[in-house]
């Protein structure tokens, strides 16, 4: 999404009302105990909900200006390739607030009053309900359901830092920022130039600093507060005012209310634990998942040869991910797939036998699926593509409809396709049967469950739910359906599927996330560096198991500038990925333009970009990841119990160190491994900031005191990483690293 036509309406929406809230109730300064530890405090200027024993506030509401506003706006959506543009027109707004009644009772406070404005009036009710001494739920309702926008203002402080809101790629801390939450394609470039401008000109698909596949309306702050909104409509979060936070949700009236939960605690980890207790946690990964996952395509002969080549180089390959198991479809965008979900006999004759042959070599095979069904391409002369699954889905009414009630034809990158309607129980059963028969039944141990963010804003759904609020829920249901198919097949804990699109409660269903389609570049907003931010930000909002395509995905050939993967980028990306839960490669959308982790020559003499040195260096880096298996495995188990992510934002591990927050491309694997991957081209010496304690450089054995910046050599194959001396996992990590040194 390159440009949103809503800046004017947003500025109007957040325009401050100068008038003070009108109080039509006896207003006295007082406090009321909701529980022995939680108090409701009224003063002349504000309301405060506080835990007195922790001296922490759940929320502050200023009485100097309205903390609730509402409006009606008409929205026009432009949709292309899952990049959305919105144009809004204001019809009426209630920007004045009165408080007419405050009812206080054990565990609960209810505020009632009116919101008014020109041609606008509605009663409102705001309820705070304590669930425990550290957890409070809130609910806001309006009497006028024609009002389709609501905003909620509450206090912040100038020094409060904001972390989370799902998977962000540009900013790892959001104070001063104005992110929006809407699952969509992340964009091509997202601000990196010149590719973003080019993508906008060609397709309006450049994206920006906030476009993401997997937003979540949940964040934690440096004041050890956590806020989560249950609603699923388009949302704006405005942290630009140093003294307050402004939140706006669209189409909340379809959900009857604006609801959420606020937690307070003594640490950010305790807040993540509380949040994931409510919303779900990832299961443990099967034992085979901790080796190298080779992402290769091209048929039985090619993938078999590349697996052998990697193993001969000492690469601990445990999985083969072949996304073209369903067939290859070449388009202007590159090598794509036949979106019909059964094995392709041309590329993989006797696919089930091939899978078993790989399993006999202790290599699990993974495939690919999404919730689309592809059609013939009318733009391609003589296209002979057929899709019997699409024919069946059409005949049975399993597809998403357009506003005219017809099957919604969507132009994807390369060819047209139709989305399965996941609100139709019969369509869901049919989809699960496809997965169980055509994928699990063939012996697959997992798959990429792609897309989820493409539901049009004006779609019509079987259940009657408004697509405006179901859009963000669609990827959650897509994950749920995949998970249920696995359970129904009796394969829970043995199969891994990985998703890129998500929203609240995705962590209850997905078994693994990946970060989607970054550019094959060192770009800050959409390259290697952005994948680090995606890992650290997403973990705060429940995506405890996440990883990226090693080397990136999006490859562009353009007369002005090519974006083709280099050897250096591929290996630097591998180094960063060695310290994540899953180590998986991808050839990219144009494999012959990208440097690969293998060498291969086709029968026609066409050679892939790659060399023997890359094969050996990649194997060396893969052995680092595999050697850390016991440590990573312990972190995955911890995540399944607590929700605390495997890859950790600096703030989660060292919340008191303000200097560390300036090094946003450093991260922690667990608490005891500090990683500072090289994310810039040409760097062979890396500057690293070390927090408190003593730190052992993994490759030289040199020990450094913390609270300082150092420079260390960073040749390819020895990514800058440091062990916390005296840490809980020191012995486990030392043993792993010693095994690497002995081999290499």
Automatic annotation (TrEMBL):
Gene3D superfamilies: Glycosidases (3.20.20.80), glycosyl hydrolase (family 31) (2.60.40.1760), Golgi alpha-mannosidase II (2.60.40.1180). Residues 77-238 form the Glycoside hydrolase family 31 N-terminal domain. InterPro entries: Gal_mutarotase_sf_dom (IPR011013), GH (IPR017853), Glyco_hydro_31_C (IPR048395), Glyco_hydro_31_N_dom (IPR025887), Glyco_hydro_31_TIM (IPR000322), Glyco_hydro_b (IPR013780), Sulfoquinovosidase_GH31 (IPR052990), YihQ_TIM-like (IPR044112). Residues 284-634 form the Glycoside hydrolase family 31 TIM barrel domain. One of its GO terms (biological process) is carbohydrate metabolic process. Residues 643-726 form the Glycosyl hydrolase family 31 C-terminal domain. The keyword Hydrolase applies. Its EC number is 3.2.1.20. This is Alpha-glucosidase. The keyword Hydrolase applies. It comes from the Bacteria. Pfam families: Gal_mutarotas_2, Glyco_hydro_31_2nd, Glyco_hydro_31_3rd. Keywords: Glycosidase, Hydrolase. GO terms for molecular function: alpha-1,4-glucosidase activity; carbohydrate binding. Belongs to the glycosyl hydrolase 31 family.
């Amino acid at each position: 999404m390159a440009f949103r036509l809503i800046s004017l309406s947003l500025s109007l929406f957040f325009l401050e009302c100068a008038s003070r809230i009108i109080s039509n109730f006896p207003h006295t300064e007082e406090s009321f105990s909701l529980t022995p530890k939680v108090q409701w405090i009224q003063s002349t200027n504000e309301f405060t909900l506080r835990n007195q024993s922790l001296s922490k506030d759940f929320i502050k509401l200023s009485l100097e200006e309205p903390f609730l506003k509402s409006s009606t706006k008409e929205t026009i959506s432009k949709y292309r390739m899952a990049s959305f543009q919105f144009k809004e027109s204001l019809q009426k707004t209630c920007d004045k607030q009165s408080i007419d009644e405050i009812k206080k009772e054990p565990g609960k406070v209810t505020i009632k009053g009116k919101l008014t404005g020109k041609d606008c009036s509605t009663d409102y009710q705001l309820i705070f309900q304590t669930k425990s001494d550290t957890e409070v739920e809130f609910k806001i309702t309006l009497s006028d359901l024609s009002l389709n926008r609501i905003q909620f203002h509450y206090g912040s402080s100038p020094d409060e830092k904001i972390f989370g809101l799902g998977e962000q790629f540009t900013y790892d801390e959001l104070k001063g920022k104005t992110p929006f939450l809407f699952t969509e394609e992340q964009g091509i470039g997202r601000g990196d130039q010149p590719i973003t401008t080019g993508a906008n000109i060609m397709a309006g698909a450049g994206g920006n600093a906030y476009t993401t596949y997997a937003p979540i309306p949940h964040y934690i702050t440096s004041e050890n507060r956590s806020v989560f909104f249950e609603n699923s409509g388009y949302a704006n979060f405005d942290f630009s005012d140093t003294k307050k936070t402004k939140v706006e949700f669209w189409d909340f009236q379809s959900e009857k209310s604006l609801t959420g939960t606020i937690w307070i605690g003594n640490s950010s980890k305790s807040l993540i634990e509380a949040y994931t207790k409510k919303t779900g946690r990832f299961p443990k990964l099967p034992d085979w998942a901790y080796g190298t996952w080779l992402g290769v395509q091209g048929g039985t002969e090619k993938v078999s040869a590349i697996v052998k080549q990697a193993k001969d180089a000492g690469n601990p390959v445990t999985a083969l991910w072949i996304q073209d198991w369903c067939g290859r479809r070449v388009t202007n965008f590159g090598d794509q797939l036949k979106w019909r979900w059964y094995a392709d006999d041309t590329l993989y004759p006797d696919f089930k036998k091939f899978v078993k042959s790989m399993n006999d070599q202790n290599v699990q095979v993974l495939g690919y699926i999404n919730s689309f069904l592809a059609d013939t391409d009318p733009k391609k002369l003589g296209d002979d593509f057929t899709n019997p699954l699409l024919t069946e889905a059409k005949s049975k009414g399993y597809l998403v409809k357009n506003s005219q009630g017809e099957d919604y034809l969507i132009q994807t990158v390369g060819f047209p396709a139709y989305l399965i309607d996941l609100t139709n129980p019969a369509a869901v059963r049919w989809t699960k049967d496809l997965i169980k028969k055509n994928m699990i039944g063939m012996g697959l141990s997992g798959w990429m469950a792609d897309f989820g963010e493409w539901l049009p804003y004006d779609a019509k759904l079987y259940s009657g739910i408004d697509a405006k609020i179901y859009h963000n829920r669609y990827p959650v249901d897509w994950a749920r359906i995949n998970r249920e198919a696995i359970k129904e097949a009796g394969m829970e804990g043995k199969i891994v599927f990985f998703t890129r699109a998500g929203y609240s409660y995705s962590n209850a269903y997905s078994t693994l996330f990946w970060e989607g389609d970054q550019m094959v570049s060192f770009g800050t907003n959409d390259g290697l560096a952005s994948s680090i931010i995606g890992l650290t930000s997403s973990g705060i909002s429940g995506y405890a198991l996440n990883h990226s395509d090693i080397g990136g995905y999006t490859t562009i050939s353009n007369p002005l500038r090519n974006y083709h993967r280099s050897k250096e980028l591929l290996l630097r990306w591998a180094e960063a990925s060695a310290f994540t839960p899953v180590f998986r490669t991808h050839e990219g959308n144009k494999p012959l333009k990208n440097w690969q982790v293998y060498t291969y020559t086709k029968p026609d003499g066409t050679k892939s970009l790659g060399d023997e040195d890359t094969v050996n260096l990649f194997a060396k880096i893969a052995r680092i990841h595999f050697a850390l298996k016991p440590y990573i495995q312990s972190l995955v188990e911890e995540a399944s119990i607590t929700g605390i992510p495997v890859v950790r934002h600096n703030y989660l591990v060292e919340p008191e160190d303000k200097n560390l927050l300036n090094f946003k491309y450093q991260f922690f694997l667990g608490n005891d491994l500090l990683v500072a991957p090289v994310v810039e081209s040409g760097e062979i010496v890396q500057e690293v900031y070390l927090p408190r304690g003593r730190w052992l450089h993994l490759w030289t054995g040199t020990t450094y005191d913390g609270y300082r910046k150092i420079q260390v050599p960073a040749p390819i194959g020895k990514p800058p990483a440091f062990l916390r001396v005296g840490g809980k996992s020191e012995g486990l990590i030392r043993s792993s690293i010693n095994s690497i040194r002995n081999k290499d």
